[in-house]
Amino acid sequence: MVTSKLETKLLITVLYSRNTNLWKLADFGLTAEATSKLARTTEGRGGTPGYRAPELLKERSTYTNKVDLWALGCIIHELATGKIVFPSDWAVRDYCVGSSVLDISLPSLPEFWQHHLSENIRTLLERDGKDRPRASETCQIFASYYEIVESMIATTLAGT
């Protein structure tokens, strides 16, 4: 696929903000105005299968920003493990009606990272949206991870 300079510029403009120095995840296939406190009913049941939060799969589905945290958990799991956590909505449903704990295998990471990252992914993938963390808490956690990694890289580079 060949992209023009305009398409590349648009992509960067949408996904990266130079003003705030932040990357943004966008378009999980569902667009609705919502907050964690105000749930909206959805009619179209949009979204990407396997990345949709359990509350979107119910007969009367509702949308809060907690569904975005679920999708973020799916994406972080996939980035960390190289595997899709839920290959379909049926897999999400099966997980949610069961009581099993997600097995998140990160053997290539040091034990500290294995423990913390897997626990934070599990928190993002809580069955009940009310039990998922606030977006601001999630941002702080992953910002602290970034600072730790940045410090480790700087230390490594200074030693060479």
Features:
160 residues; mainly alpha; Transferase(Phosphotransferase), domain 1; two-stranded antiparallel sheet; two-stranded antiparallel ribbon; 4 strands; 47% helix; globular
Walk me through the structure.
The protein contains 5 helices and 4 strands, in the order αββββαααα. It is mostly helical and 160 residues long. It has a domain at 25-133: Transferase(Phosphotransferase) domain 1 (Transferase(Phosphotransferase), domain 1), CATH 1.10.510.10. The chain is globular, with a radius of gyration of 18 Å.
Task: Write the CATH homologous superfamily of the domain at 25-133.
Answer: Transferase(Phosphotransferase) domain 1
Number of strands: 4
User: How many helical elements?
Assistant: 5
Uncertain parts: 6-14
Quick recap:
The protein has a domain at 25-133: Transferase(Phosphotransferase) domain 1 (Transferase(Phosphotransferase), domain 1, Orthogonal Bundle), CATH 1.10.510.
Helix-strand layout with pairing:
Elements: H1 5-15, E1 16-17, E2 22-23, E3 40-41, E4 62-63, H2 66-81, H3 89-97, H4 111-124, H5 135-159
Antiparallel strand pairs: 1-2, 3-4
